Amino acid sequence: MSNLFSQRHLLGIKDLNEADIRMVLETAKEFKEVINRPIKKVPSLRDITIANIFFENSTRTRISFELAEKRLSADTINFASSASSVSKGETLLDTVNNILSMKVDMVVMRHPAPGAPHFLSKRISANIVNAGDGTHEHPTQALLDAYSMQEQIGDLAGKNIAIIGDILHSRVALSNIFLLKKLGANVKVCGPSTLIPRHIHELGVEVSYNLIETLNWCHVANVLRIQLERQDIKFIPSLREYSMYYGIDKKLLDSLNKKIVLMHPGPINRGVELNSDAADSEHSIILQQVENGVAVRMAVLYILASQN
Questions:
Q1: Range(s) for CATH 3.40.50.1370 in the chain?
Q2: Strands laid side by side in the 220-223 sheet
Q3: Cα separation of 207 and 209, whole Å?
Q4: Could you tell me how far CA 76 lies from the centroid of its own chain?
Q5: Alpha-carbon gap, residue 73 to 91, rounded angstroms
Q6: What pLDDT digit, counting tens, does each position of 258-284 carry?
Q7: What residues contact 188, with CB distance under 8 A and at least 6 apart?
Q8: Measured between alpha carbons, how far is 111 from 124 in angstroms, rounded to an integer?
Q9: Furthest-apart CA pair in the chain: how many Å?
Q10: With contact defined as beta carbons under 8 Å apart, do 267 and 225 qualify?
Q11: pTM (2 decimals)?
């Protein structure tokens, strides 16, 4: 298996080929069986040390990676920049080199600057997993989203997948688009024109500004939150107005001409992009996404460790 994966790192979906993606998804299937057993641990990474380095706040992704590492029996180091020498002006490279001097084999990193994991990958010997870099990519989220979709609707080739919401500021949207296109899905993005990147059609996706038309078209709707923390100017008049035109509730889902699968990478702004009656409905697989995230991240860590 180890010589089939084309990359030493997981920096972004853009770098992967279709065989890489399918390999992660197949491996994740095996690990999902493991984490549903009474004894959830395997010794696969017993001799591997992994540093989780988060320069941005994260709850779900960080905990998901930590749990995946523990399930694989890896030794872990957790690093948060707010409680470190970064707050005293230490550079990214110095920080990571100090951690690597402790004989770390792999680095899982989230950073607000797009391209930060790529920068590091050229300068250090450890395998790097990008846990989100600015508004650029979030590869493990796209992989777990694809795994979750496949569980519901089978092979994604020819299926209609909608990504709805703040496409402009979302690293999840970009990674999902790259991955879905590589697996042969039809992708449509939907949201206010101010939140749709100008040249996004060049990635081979359709653009819609009509929520109901988009929901009637798709098999799966992956709904993204409005990322107010990344907006230095107002892209929408108000959250209330956004919710009027692009918010999804149970009544809207029930009015569609078919049942669709509803997804969200979290955290949900309840009452904005999703009402609680939709987020908690039978359409929603949001909690399954969280469970699948551990299996997919176990697969990624296992495959990259096998490269060495």
A1: 13-138+290-306, 139-285
A2: 206-208, 186-190, 160-164, 220-223, 261-263
A3: 7
A4: 21
A5: 31
A6: 999 999 998 999 999 999 999 999 999
A7: 160, 161, 162, 163, 205, 206, 207, 208, 214, 217, 218
A8: 16
A9: 58
A10: yes
A11: 0.94
In whole angstroms, what is the distance from residue 169 CA to residue 195 CA?
8
Asked if residues 273 and 239 have their Cβ atoms less than 8 Å apart, the reply is no
Q: Which residue type is seen at 281?
A: S
From CA 95, how far away is CA 92, in angstroms rounded? 5
Render the burial of 124-155: b for 16+ CB within 10 Å, e for the rest.
Answer: bebbbbbbbbbbbbbbbbbbbbbbbbbeebee
Cα–Cα nearest to 290, from 59, 15, 19, 55: 59
Kindly report the CATH class assigned to 13-138+290-306.
alpha beta
Quick count: other Cβ atoms within 10 Å of Cβ 223? Answer: 23
Report the alpha-carbon distance of residue 238 to residue 265 in Å, rounded: 22
3-state SS track over the chain: CCCCCCCCCECCHHHCCHHHHHHHHHHHHHHHHHHCCCCCCCCCCCCCEEEEEECCCCCHHHHHHHHHHHHCCCEEEEEEHHHCHHHHCCCHHHHHHHHHCCCCCEEEEEECCCCHHHHHHCCCCCEEEEEEECCCECHHHHHHHHHHHHHHHCCCCCCEEEEECCCCCCHHHHHHHHHHHHCCCEEEEECCHHHCCCCHHHHCCEEECCHHHHHHHCCEEEECCCCHHHCCCCCCCCHHHHHHHHCECHHHHHCCCCCCEEECCCCCCECCCECHHHHCCCCECHHHHHHHHHHHHHHHHHHHHHCC
Over residues 200-239, the pLDDT tens digits come to 999 999 999 999 999 999 999 999 998 764 445 467 778 8
CA–CA gap between residue 242 and residue 7 (Å, rounded): 40
CA–CA separation, 51 and 110 (whole Å): 11
Looking at CATH, the fold of the domain delimited by 139-285 is given as: Rossmann fold (3.40.50)
pLDDT band at 85 (very low <50, low <70, confident <90, very high): low
